[in-house]
Amino acid sequence: MRNETRVQIQSKHKKKFLNGYPLLFKEALANPEKLKEEGAILNLVDHNGEFIGKGYYGRQNKGYGWVLTQDASESIDEAFFTNKIQKALHYRKSFFEDPSTTAFRVVNGEGDGLGGITIDRFNDYYLINWYSEGAYSFKNEVVNSLKTLVNFKGIYEKKRFDAKGQYVDDDDFVAGERGEFPLIVKENGVDFAVYLNEGAMVGVFLDQRPVRKIIRDKYAKGKSVLNTFSYTGAFSVFAALGGAVHTTSVDLANRSLNKTIEQFSVNGIDYEAQNILVMDVFKYFKYAVKKNLKFDMVILDPPSFARSKKHTFSAAKDYKNLLKETIAITEDKGVIVASTNYSGYDMKKFKGFVDQAFKESGGKYKLLEEYSLPEDFRTTKEFREGNYLKVVFIEKIKG
Ligand code: SAH
After folding, report:
1. Minimal CB count within 10 Å: which of 17, 203, 239, 273?
2. Short-list 349, 254, 342, CA closest to 305
3. How far is the CA of 91 from the centre of ligand 1 (A)?
4. Sheet holding 117-122, edge to edge
5. Domains in the chain and their CATH numbers?
6. Residue among 207, 251, 297, 326 to mutate when testing ligand 1 (max atoms within 8 A of CB)
7. What is the longest distance spanned by two Cα atoms in the chain?
8. By the 8 A CB rule, do 187 and 204 touch?
9. 234 in ligand 1 pocket by Cβ < 6 Å?
């Protein structure tokens, strides 16, 4: 039997949880230091001992665990997980019916009532991400549920819960047959080479799907495109397929070169006609200014935090400057696609950086469109910060 612990919620936060807030953050708990056993069921009560909800203890960078139900009579057992996952699969029905996209998220943590756990589909393979040891303690329940609910060839997992919330390297294979990698998945008709056995990042970030599509369908034709922090070059591939005259992909990681060559190649694009650079983006900006290079479209999708030899970038502090450096190498009437997955600020504040950057650069701009998480990355109105993605398309207008 799983341990159950009674946990008192601080009075001033009670209403928040009664309204469906799912994250057990430290200040909300009367005695957070008493919690020890990862995966313990937490019976949440108010100061009078009245029931508020049931959750589990699982430390991750975001907090101490997640509320799982507001129904006192519901037990957290395999049937509970089966029910949640079944509902989550049903919510993605249209994705399962679309053969042009075979990679998408099927369970998005708290958005599907299962904080700390996500599940992605890649063809006939499923990938479970566990964000805490507590979440991982539900492995049997989750894996058994998945096995009964989907047709699958194999199930893989990523444990993202060492002390820093980082990926723990281990054998990621869970059940079924081992895959042969790369697995070639489809996204809106485009191929991606995906590796479920090579660490936390599998080759593609699924949450940018609509952004890639619109770049291909509406923005790329006839354009010169610079893709910064390009990783495997997913944006570059979509731009090239959309008729970009030329793409330049810049990423600091050595692996990015071969990975980007591979993504172009699986789509029949001659990678030698594209520019793929293993380089610090900030160094590239200086090089571009010196060489007077300008682009019709620049894509910015940095990590929330990155440190290179010469540079530290934090989305919290440095996004405005990143935009200013970008504005300097964007053609008039060119488009900047600015993206961040940093959850510490919202779209309004992000657009504020855009505004400041253009003001300080002495130029004008027009916001063309904006994106947040796509439908499969389901979020709830009770937990708005779960919708971390912010993407804006900005046209640079001659100042
Ligand atoms: N835009 C990518 C995902 C970016 S992941 C996509 O759509 O798939 C973040 C990437 O930024 C990583 O590949 C990392 O190697 C790279 N990176 C981090 N700091 C960098 C820097 N200073 N210069 C260039 N690349 C950097």
Report:
1. 273
2. 342
3. 31
4. 103-108, 117-122, 125-130, 154-159, 173-176
5. 4-69 (2.30.130.10), 78-194 (3.30.750.80), 206-397 (3.40.50.150)
6. 251
7. 70
8. yes
9. yes
H helical segments located in the chain: 11-18, 78-91, 93-96, 133-136, 139-149, 209-214, 234-241, 255-266, 281-290, 315-328, 347-361
pLDDT tens by residue, the chain, 399 residues: 788 999 999 999 999 999 999 999 999 999 888 898 999 999 999 999 999 999 999 999 889 999 999 999 999 999 999 999 999 999 999 999 999 999 999 999 999 999 999 999 999 999 999 999 999 999 999 999 999 999 999 999 999 987 666 777 778 999 999 999 999 999 999 999 999 999 889 999 999 999 999 999 999 999 999 999 999 999 999 999 999 999 999 999 999 999 999 999 999 999 999 999 999 999 999 999 999 999 999 999 999 999 888 889 999 999 999 999 999 999 999 999 999 999 999 999 999 999 999 999 999 999 999 999 999 999 999 999 999 999 999 999 975
Is the CB of residue 280 below 6 angstroms from any atom belonging to ligand 1? yes
Q: How far apart are CA 175 and CA 125, in angstroms?
A: 10
Is the CB–ligand 1 distance for residue 205 below 6 Å? yes
pTM above 0.70, yes or no: yes
d(CA 322, CA 340): 12
Residue 55, strand partner residues: 42, 67
Strand-pairing partners, residue 319, are: none
